[in-house]
Write a structure and sequence with these properties.
With 402 residues, this protein is an alpha+beta fold. Helix content is 18%, strand content 44%. The chain has an 18-stranded mixed beta sheet that branches. It has a four-stranded mixed beta sheet with strand order 1-4-3-2. The chain has a two-stranded antiparallel sheet with strand order 11-12. Strand 3 (77-83) and strand 4 (87-96) form a beta hairpin. The longest helix has 31 residues, at 2-32. The chain starts with a helix and ends with a helix. It holds the Pfam family PDZ_6. It comes from Ruminococcus albus SY3. This is Peptidase C55.
């Protein structure tokens, strides 16, 4: 009898511990997994997570089905995510739509951006004081207008400050998405009136195209925002252009020192326009397809799994080539900074570049014949590894740039 009781207590304790563990895992996924998913027309929703998660129609969806005889699921269908097919995690929305088809690229492109307003990159004393700091302007603020004149360059600010002399200038600047009005009293220094700030009004560089939509001409590239090098803030875009770039050299990556592609604009010809600079990359329209590749299907984020992939990139200015790699980590969480960790395994690419170099950002990631992501950043301490972004998130942003 005592043995039976002991066995029962041990079994009950183990069952309780297992239940608590399952509830803890379910709670973690409830907090971190997205509330909405895109799915193909078959409506199947399964997640490639560490622990097995499938889905079943949510209970309230049965009532919805009785009232919606059309079968239209384009507005979304309620599903319940299930841990190991048994433990409910959360109710989510699965939106059925036709899976997009896109041309995976891998070509390098030249980036030219003009800012909407100018970014304050440094404050400095002039004549023993800093007028900009005195009126509340800080590094990273965006100067929108001075005395009612829209500002596009450092020259614009200088001209307006000279006009107002010591009578004061009305300055409108933007911080954290909010505009503020202040009066700036210039300082007389070295024969002229100064505001005491350095600003940036443009940027140029090299990136890699991720995809091209043949039907709309829309492209996506880079996989991350173009940010100001001094403030780290996303450059507010006024207008941008895609230029033809000629790769002139390569500095390989090594531990502690990321390499980079070297290049220069090969002419004044504009190949397309950039209309959006956001956290997911650069988006706009190209005059022509960068290459005559075949379209492939988009892979949705929940379909991406750990394992072998190919990345397409051009590190010598020639046609993009496929290189072998592996996805080592996936994070489906909403608002996470990095979606993927990618490990370059192709000895050919490692021999040429050391792994990932600056300028490869945007290189498309292919898995199971679908476009699933893009390379974004290189690890400083291990250039064979880097971060990536889901292609689905880039395509969502591309739709906003149409």
């Amino acid at each position: 009898m005592e043995i039976t009781k002991y066995f029962f207590r041990r079994t009950a304790a183990a069952a309780g511990a297992l239940t608590l563990t399952l509830l803890g895992v379910a709670g973690f996924y409830d907090r971190t997994l997205p509330d909405s998913y895109s799915v193909a027309h078959d409506g199947k929703l399964e997640l490639n997570t560490f622990f097995s998660i499938s889905s079943r129609p949510a209970k309230r969806s049965y009532m919805t089905a009785l009232t919606d005889l059309s079968g239209d699921t384009s507005h979304g269908r309620e599903s319940t995510l299930m841990l190991f097919g048994a433990v409910p995690v959360k109710d989510v929305t699965a939106v059925c739509s036709e899976r997009p088809k896109l041309v995976p690229c891998g070509e390098t492109f030249g980036i030219k951006l003009l800012t909407d307003g100018v970014i304050v990159v440094e404050l400095t004393d002039v004549g023993g004081r800093c007028p900009a700091r005195e009126c509340g302007i800080r590094k990273g603020d965006i100067i929108i207008s001075v005395n009612g004149r829209n500002i596009r360059s450092n020259r614009d600010i200088s001209e307006e400050v000279r006009k107002c002399r010591d009578s004061g200038c009305e300055v409108v600047y933007r911080r954290d998405g909010k505009d503020k009005n202040v009066m700036l009293e210039p300082a007389y220094f070295e024969g002229g009136y100064k505001a005491g700030m350095w600003v940036r009004d443009s940027s140029a560089g090299i990136g890699t195209l991720t995809f091209f939509d043949k039907d709309s001409g829309v492209f996506g590239g880079l996989g991350h925002a173009v940010c100001d090098s001094d403030t780290g803030n996303i450059l507010p875009l006024s207008e941008g252009a895609v230029g033809d770039i000629e790769i002139t050299g390569l500095i390989p990556s090594e531990e502690g020192s990321p390499g980079q592609l070297l290049g220069e604009f090969s002419g004044e010809e504009v190949l397309g326009e950039i209309t959006l600079n956001c956290e997911a990359g650069l988006f706009g329209k190209l005059e022509n397809s960068p290459d005559e590749k075949e379209e492939v299907e988009l892979g949705y984020k929940q379909e991406v799994h750990r394992g072998s992939v190919q990345i397409y990139s051009s590190v010598d200015g020639k046609a993009p080539e496929p290189y072998s790699a592996r996805i080592e980590h996936i994070d489906l969480s909403d608002g996470v900074e990095h979606d993927l960790v990618v490990h370059i395994t192709d000895e050919r690419l490692i021999g040429e570049t050391g792994g990932i170099v600056q300028g490869m950002s945007g290189s498309p990631i292919m898995q199971d014949g679908r476009l699933v992501g893009a390379v974004t950043h290189v690890f400083i301490d291990d250039p064979t590894r880097g971060y990536g972004i889901f292609a689905e998130d880039m395509v969502s942003c591309a739709e906003k740039s149409r």
